[in-house]
Amino acid sequence: MANARGTPLIRVAREDDAPALVALLEQLGYAVSEAHVTGVLAARSVDLEVLVAAVAERVAGAIEVRLTAPALAVSQEAEITALVVDERERGSGVGAALLRRAETWARERGLATIAVRSNVIRERAHAFYAREGYARVKAQALLRKELSLFRA
């Protein structure tokens, strides 16, 4: 494990990390249950990985990276679908270490690009990604419709 202020240890998330992951996600405003997080961790495959950054033996950040499915208009790439660093560790290099490991994961799978989507209100995150070499490609809207599971 890394020392209190040393380089974080990046490792594969374990099911016993679920409570820490729930707490981290709550810092970003996502209300998820331990059961949900445990389910995601159990569903990992060669196409999906969840990594954590451990600092002084506690989870200080996490990243989820996955392969996108090939589509007609887009070639396959890796996508970061979650990145969170504990408020107390932001600016300490934890996020950059997680990004580097996710990028290595993508390269190991033969992918030439990695993408991340970030809410327009997360300006500090956008500055972080820019410092790490990520360029804004486009802005888009997310549209969602709630579906009734039962027809009336």
According to DSSP, the number of beta strands is 5
How many separate domains? 1
Strand order of the largest sheet: 1-2-3-4-5
CATH architecture: 3-Layer(aba) Sandwich
List the helices and strands and how they pair.
Elements: E1 9-12, H1 18-27, H2 34-42, E2 48-55, E3 58-67, E4 78-85, H3 94-108, E5 114-116, H4 123-131
Parallel strand pairs: 4-5
Antiparallel strand pairs: 1-2, 2-3, 3-4
Helix pairs in contact: 1-2
Structure in a nutshell:
This protein is α+β, with helices and mostly antiparallel strands and 152 residues long. The protein has helices at 18-27, 34-42, 94-108, 123-131; strands at 9-12, 48-55, 58-67, 78-85, 114-116.
Can you describe this structure?
This protein has helices spanning 18-27, 34-42, 94-108, 123-131, and strands at residues 9-12, 48-55, 58-67, 78-85, 114-116. The protein has one domain: Aminopeptidase (3-Layer(aba) Sandwich). Strands 1-2-3-4-5 form a 5-stranded mixed sheet. The termini are far apart. By secondary structure, the chain is of the alpha+beta class. Helices cover 28% and strands 22% of the residues.
